[in-house]
Specification:
The protein is of the alpha+beta class. Helix content is about 40%, strand content about 15%. The protein contains 4 helices and 4 strands, in the order αβαβαββα. A 4-stranded mixed sheet has the order 2-1-3-4, covered by helices on one side. Strand 3 and strand 4 form a beta hairpin. The protein starts with a helix and ends with a helix.
Length: about 110
Amino acid sequence: LRLGPVPAITAGLGLLGRMGKGSKYRDAKVPEMPLQVWSYEASPFCKVVRETLVELELPHLMISCARGSPKRQQLFEEKGLFQVPYLIDPNTGVEMFESAEIVEYLEKTYSL
Protein backbone atom coordinates (compact mmCIF):
# COMPACT_ATOMS: atom_id res chain seq x y z
CA LEU A 1 0.00 0.00 0.00
CA ARG A 2 1.54 3.28 -1.07
CA LEU A 3 -0.25 6.36 0.16
CA GLY A 4 2.39 8.99 -0.51
CA PRO A 5 3.65 11.77 1.76
CA VAL A 6 0.30 13.44 2.62
CA PRO A 7 -0.88 10.86 5.20
CA ALA A 8 2.53 10.88 6.91
CA ILE A 9 2.58 14.67 7.08
CA THR A 10 -0.99 15.02 8.35
CA ALA A 11 -0.47 12.25 10.93
CA GLY A 12 2.64 14.05 12.19
CA LEU A 13 0.76 17.35 12.39
CA GLY A 14 -1.95 15.60 14.38
CA LEU A 15 0.61 14.81 17.08
CA LEU A 16 1.60 18.46 17.53
CA GLY A 17 -1.49 19.63 19.38
CA ARG A 18 -1.31 16.74 21.85
CA MET A 19 2.48 16.97 22.25
CA GLY A 20 3.06 13.39 21.08
CA LYS A 21 0.51 11.76 23.40
CA GLY A 22 -0.08 8.14 22.48
CA SER A 23 3.35 7.71 20.91
CA LYS A 24 5.37 6.65 23.98
CA TYR A 25 5.18 3.48 26.06
CA ARG A 26 4.64 3.63 29.82
CA ASP A 27 4.83 0.68 32.23
CA ALA A 28 1.48 -0.74 33.26
CA LYS A 29 -0.16 -3.74 34.90
CA VAL A 30 -1.73 -5.98 32.29
CA PRO A 31 -5.40 -6.70 32.99
CA GLU A 32 -6.56 -10.29 32.93
CA MET A 33 -9.39 -9.53 30.49
CA PRO A 34 -9.40 -6.86 27.77
CA LEU A 35 -11.15 -3.58 28.50
CA GLN A 36 -14.08 -2.55 26.32
CA VAL A 37 -14.29 0.98 24.96
CA TRP A 38 -17.27 2.34 23.05
CA SER A 39 -15.89 5.02 20.78
CA TYR A 40 -15.71 6.50 17.32
CA GLU A 41 -12.68 7.75 15.46
CA ALA A 42 -13.69 11.39 14.89
CA SER A 43 -14.38 12.19 18.56
CA PRO A 44 -11.62 14.22 20.23
CA PHE A 45 -12.82 12.92 23.61
CA CYS A 46 -12.37 9.32 22.47
CA LYS A 47 -8.91 10.16 21.11
CA VAL A 48 -7.66 11.10 24.58
CA VAL A 49 -8.78 7.73 25.94
CA ARG A 50 -7.26 5.83 22.99
CA GLU A 51 -3.93 7.62 23.56
CA THR A 52 -3.84 6.44 27.17
CA LEU A 53 -4.77 2.87 26.22
CA VAL A 54 -1.96 2.86 23.63
CA GLU A 55 0.66 4.37 25.96
CA LEU A 56 -0.12 1.82 28.66
CA GLU A 57 -0.45 -0.99 26.08
CA LEU A 58 -3.67 -2.12 27.70
CA PRO A 59 -5.48 -4.85 25.78
CA HIS A 60 -8.87 -3.54 24.75
CA LEU A 61 -11.77 -4.10 22.44
CA MET A 62 -12.82 -0.95 20.63
CA ILE A 63 -16.53 -0.96 19.86
CA SER A 64 -16.99 1.50 17.03
CA CYS A 65 -20.24 3.44 17.07
CA ALA A 66 -19.82 6.02 14.34
CA ARG A 67 -22.76 7.96 12.96
CA GLY A 68 -25.25 5.58 11.36
CA SER A 69 -23.91 2.54 13.25
CA PRO A 70 -26.49 0.28 14.95
CA LYS A 71 -24.06 0.17 17.90
CA ARG A 72 -25.15 3.74 18.79
CA GLN A 73 -28.70 2.58 19.32
CA GLN A 74 -27.47 -0.44 21.26
CA LEU A 75 -25.52 1.77 23.68
CA PHE A 76 -28.51 4.09 24.04
CA GLU A 77 -30.84 1.20 24.80
CA GLU A 78 -28.43 -0.32 27.34
CA LYS A 79 -27.47 2.91 29.16
CA GLY A 80 -30.36 5.28 28.49
CA LEU A 81 -28.16 7.79 26.67
CA PHE A 82 -25.58 7.88 23.93
CA GLN A 83 -22.28 9.31 25.06
CA VAL A 84 -18.76 8.25 24.18
CA PRO A 85 -16.22 7.31 25.22
CA TYR A 86 -17.75 4.66 27.44
CA LEU A 87 -15.44 2.26 29.29
CA ILE A 88 -16.29 -1.18 30.62
CA ASP A 89 -13.59 -2.85 32.74
CA PRO A 90 -14.61 -6.48 33.29
CA ASN A 91 -11.66 -6.90 35.67
CA THR A 92 -13.01 -4.47 38.26
CA GLY A 93 -16.68 -4.11 37.29
CA VAL A 94 -16.22 -0.40 36.60
CA GLU A 95 -18.30 1.20 33.84
CA MET A 96 -18.00 4.91 33.11
CA PHE A 97 -18.49 7.81 30.72
CA GLU A 98 -16.38 11.02 30.57
CA SER A 99 -12.94 10.96 28.96
CA ALA A 100 -11.11 12.77 31.79
CA GLU A 101 -12.52 10.37 34.39
CA ILE A 102 -11.69 7.36 32.20
CA VAL A 103 -8.07 8.52 31.74
CA GLU A 104 -7.76 9.14 35.49
CA TYR A 105 -9.18 5.67 36.21
CA LEU A 106 -6.81 3.97 33.75
CA GLU A 107 -3.81 5.80 35.23
CA LYS A 108 -4.77 5.00 38.81
CA THR A 109 -5.71 1.38 38.13
CA TYR A 110 -3.11 0.23 35.61
CA SER A 111 -0.16 2.64 35.42
CA LEU A 112 2.98 1.60 37.35
